[in-house]
Amino acid sequence: MLRETVQRQNGQAAPQGVGARLPRKEDDRFMRGRGQYVADIRLAGLQDVAFVRSPLAHAHIKAIHIPERYRGSVFTAADLVGVKPIRAVSGLPGFKVSEQPVLATDKIRQVGELVAMCVAPTRAEAEDIAAAVTLDLDELPAVHDMLEARLPGAALVHDHWGDNVFLETFFEVDISSALDAPIKITREISTARQCMSPLEGRGVVASFDHRLDQLTLHTGSQMPHIVRNGLSDCLGIEQGRIRIVSPDVGGGFGHKGILLPEEVCLAWLTMRRGHPLRWIEDRREHLVASANCREHHYNITVYADRDGTLRGIDCEATVDSGAYSSYPFSACLEAAQIASILPGPYKMPAYRCRTYSVATNKCPILPYRGVARTGVCFALELMLDAIAVEAGIEPGEVRLRNLVQPEQMPFDNITNKHFDSGDYPQAMRRALDAIDIDGVRARQRKGEADGRRIGVGLAIYCEQAAHGTSVYAGWGIPMVPGHEQATARLTPDGGLELRVGVHSHGQGMETTLAQVAHEILGVDVAKVRLVHGDTAMTPYSTGTWGSRAMVMAGGAVAAACSELGERAKRIGAKLLQASEHDVVLQDGRVTSANGDVSLQEIAHTWYRRPQDLPADVDPAGLDVTGGYKPQRDSGTFSYAAHAVIVSVDPEIGKVEILDYVIVEDGGVLVNPMIVDGQIFGGLAQGIGTALYEEMPFDRAGQPLATTLADYLLPGPSEVPEPRLDHMETPSPYTQFGVKGIGEGGAIAPPAAIANAVNDALRPLGVELLHSPITPRRIVSAILAASDALRSAA
Amino acid sequence: MKSAPFSYERPTDMRGALALMAQPNASVKIMAGGQSLGPMLNLRLAAPDMIVDITALSDLKRADTDNGDLVLGACVTHADIEDGRVADVTRGAMQRVASAIAYRAVRNRGTIGGSLSHADPSADWVSAFAALGAVLTLRRATATRQIAMADFVRGALETSLHPDEMIESIRIPALSATARWGYVKSCRKPGEFAHAIGAVLIDPEAATARVVIGAIEAAPIMLADASELFGGKITGEFKQRFDARVADRLLAAAGLADAADRQIHVAILRRAVAEAAA
After folding, report:
1. CB A740 within 8 A of CB A547
2. Does A785 reach chain B within 8 Å, measured CB to CB?
3. 3-state secondary structure A722-748
4. In chain A, which residue's Cα lies nearest the Cα of B264?
5. Does the structure show a pLDDT above 50 at A1?
6. Is A451 left (phi over 0), alpha (psi -120 to 50) or beta?
7. Helix, strand, coil % (nearest 5) of chain A?
8. Chain A residues with CB inside 8 Å of B3's CB?
9. Residue A11: what pLDDT?
């Protein structure tokens, strides 16, 4: 059907390889509502699990009371003999280890922590049981604020640590050289805690297959092989006895890149009970107990010359890591990353950054799309605007003066990040042109008849993606990516099966990896099937995270297909009675001077008519696993400049986005239409961070936005259609020159929008430094500024 | 998020419904559209023994004009009003309010009686009917009574309803020929609960003004005689005479300690006044 569409549009076979804007193969089932997610799975004898969760943030458990009638249906930590806690240790020096019990043992450290699991034929009945279980808790003071948590005398999340700091890091290059700079600006900047909120929450269906002596866990996961590692560690059973299947997944964003205590619990219980079990996360569980992210705090000082040239940055950054270190990314990845990426795409001669990963009585922080970059971009780009104001020059000009220049590429920046390629200033200039910066300034000078104020905001970032072994070995976390592998197999009818260990949950890999295979082998993408999301059927992979899949799995598919092509050429040469050196593979056919033979005929002969092949044919066959790593594993650097025009209604604090421009360079794009979609989705999440999403906690550590009436997500009416402009600077190190692009859209919007709001309100003496920028924060800031003006006068 | 167990009845006559509600020693909740009660059940914030579904009571879907007033049964939906399936005596004012309630899916099922009984301070009808001067008829097995909308809501999620009592109908007086209507709310996104509501019904000829400041996490501020907001008297110049300081004082007296909150409410009210003047 896909092929028909393409042919109908063009009247002849359209390009299908790298660079083609093909409609997504997977959309046929998604758009008809035929995707299959964990909650769609029905197994005979399936029962539901509901969890008793802690109502308090910090408490000792004195007793768990289970009504007599429910004994046998309720399981607590006391039952989980031999099950180990989840441990995600970092090898960075000084890291303090947290052990996350899969069911709470003696102490509770967050609201929503699992205390007991309840089994019943339906979820409603399981919830009835959970409601009948009562907890006798001894409440402790909650550690609810990451800055207070660092003060002496604070309550301790993990008593034996002696403080609440998972990890402190420090990095410095010659900060003393910046101290005499004529411009010195200090700000306190922060981003709110958020929930990731994919359309599909988490879910697990666990069962045990006695024939295979194998536990099967259906779980919506970005990284099924890593879940298997973690599960094997916790349960103490060998990996061969565990199969992880991740079916269709409705958005990951990092929330599905961790090992869940719920996964361990259901795996243990299905082996004990012998029947399948299911737990499907509901929205309240998601908001209260899971998937928090983004909470950063910066005390930051920038030094610059009068012309806006950056002399240095000095920063103390704190991240609220929550109660436990999540597997596999750990509690410190976010904060430690800040130190290495805060300089952004800019040159500077001096830099100092100290970071703290702080434990609090909140759920663990997880790496959300963009990970630390969204907060870093927010802090850094707000400071660039502050320099522009102080120096009296345009914000765009300040950026152009400080960006790494194209002739400097590849460029090793002050934290030794290796920028592989690109023209950052060109992206900024294109964005300024597209947003018509001069037109905006003219409009601002005229003012608005309706009392609103217009502002323009900029942000630019570069994004390390698909970084590999050396980088993650440095972090020392439980997961270090090595060579990525893929299997390519010609079927007897000439179809192509690809098997990859990454997982596609919105990235469109069933299409893009087929395009890669088509590029190498010429097989019609309609005849390429992608097998993914199943440890029993795919090569090991750390999975889909860090914007790595297209670079890594794309490279691996290319490698496997290239070798498969060589194998096919050898067989084809025999059929053509030619030397393998005298044949070429082109458009799905092996061709010699005397004739040609299709891959389909080669496959048919190899599998079904081996009697037609000579005895000395290459025995290796048409099933190849290939491996891949880029020439350097320090990552690709995609980048983008965002420019936005907003209107602000100063009376009621309402922000409206009037125009949004994104100039993006993701290297060579395998499918530009899919990349556009990735950017739209990322922008929506970035707008959520900028204007809407916030999970506040009270002093008792209670989360306060526990339904979607309180936790606001942007919807269609809040997300404008951006104007996109692509640049295409190939990475010198990767197959086809591709770069990771999946996370970028979510990085810059909070910074760009905040800068635009500040640009609009600057004449009122307002500068907003905390996301999200809510109506109330805007109005409060305006009132505070006018009070300040009054008292000054 | 699954409800605790409850029993369910769907009576077909009012007498039967009222009898179910009058059962001793049983907590009974009425369900009409279920747009508020449904989530509360699933969150186990409400755990009644019995749900009495009143959507089979045809009397509660009536929409009659009586003596110039409009009388709407409690089970008339927001969409019935939005789509003009019921008569109108407000020159489109109610239609505009209805069309901006939550999302269409909510409006299809949600009822005016359910919304008023739930009494969420941010709900549109709580403020709009108070400004329009609506009067409710409440029924229980032993009695029927009338109560002005302004007296019905006691606080956030708190009404004058007895446990065995339900709203039967809402009587909305016709707008006079010279009456001016303004209704403005502030939401962070369309369909979201309002954070500020201003509703005004001003008749400069009659020199009367009813003003409601709603969505204040308590019963709305209701001024049946709002002349104090307009320098002591209602004239054709009411827009120019609007006194924001008085509104701010009213809000402070109602417990809104935060100046930014008050400013947003005052600004929304001023816009409602401007709409009435337009």
Report:
1. yes
2. no
3. CEEEEECCCCCCCHHHECCCCCHHHCC
4. A652
5. no
6. left
7. 35, 25, 40
8. 124
9. 52
- Test B263 with A123 for CB contact under 8 angstroms: no
Question: CB–CB of B196 and A652 under 8 A?
Answer: yes
**Chain position carrying tokens 């219980």:** A269
B106 touches chain A (CB under 8 A): no
Distance CA A450, CA A42 (A): 57
Interchain CB contacts (distance < 8 Å): A and B:
63
| Pairing mode of beta strands A203-209, A214-219 | antiparallel
Asked, as a colleague might, if the bond just before A247 is cis with ω within 30 of 0, I would say: no
Q: How far is A779 from chain B (nearest CA, A)?
A: 5
**Residue A121 touches partner B, C-beta closer than 8 Å:** no
Q: Which residues contact A599 (CB under 8 A, 6 or more apart)?
A: A490, A494, A521, A522, A523, A568, A588, A589, A590
In this structure, is the dihedral angle defined by the CA atoms of residues B29, B34, B36 and B39, taken in order, positive or negative? positive
* Overall pTM surpassing 0.95 (yes/no): yes
Rg over alpha carbons for chain A, rounded to the nearest Å, is 28
The two most distant CA atoms of chain A are separated, in Å, by: 99
Facing A652 at nearest CB: one of B189, B191, B268: B268
Nearest of A242, A247, A181, A195 to residue A29 by alpha carbon: A247
Phi, psi of A279 (to 5 degrees): -135, 125
Query: Which two three-digit tokens encode residue B26?
Result: 């049983």
B257 and A CB contact within 8 Å:
no
ipTM of the complex: 0.95
A792 confidence band (pLDDT: 50, 70, 90): confident
- Percentage of the residues of chain A whose pLDDT score is greater than 90: 96
Q: Cα dist. A457→A463, A755, B80 in Å?
A: 20, 5, 44
- Ramachandran bin of A656, using left for φ above 0, alpha for ψ from -120 to 50, beta for the remaining angles: beta
- Stated as kind and residue range, the H or E segment containing B272 is helix B259-277
**How many residues are given for chain B?**
278
Task: Tell me the C-alpha distance between A357 and A165, whole Å.
Answer: 6
pLDDT single digits (tens) A624-665: 999 999 999 999 999 999 999 999 999 999 999 999 999 999
Answer for the pair A758, A650: CB distance below 8 angstroms, yes or no: no
Contact A557, A624 (CB under 8 A): no
Give the mean pLDDT of chain A: 96
| pLDDT per residue as tens digits for the range B234-262 | 999 999 999 999 999 999 999 999 999 99
Can you say how many angstroms the Cα of residue B23 is from the centroid of all Cα atoms in its chain? 28
- The reply to whether residue A779 touches residue B260, judged by beta carbons under 8 angstroms, is yes
Longest CA–CA span in chain B (Å) reads: 58
Q: Is there a contact between A435 and A454 (Cβ–Cβ < 8 Å)?
A: no
Q: Whole-angstrom distance between the N-terminal and C-terminal Cα of chain A? A: 72
A231 three-class SS: helix
pLDDT tens-digit map of A194-252: 999 999 999 999 999 999 999 999 999 999 999 999 999 999 999 999 999 999 999 99
A683 CB burial (10 A radius; 0-12, 13-18, 19+): buried
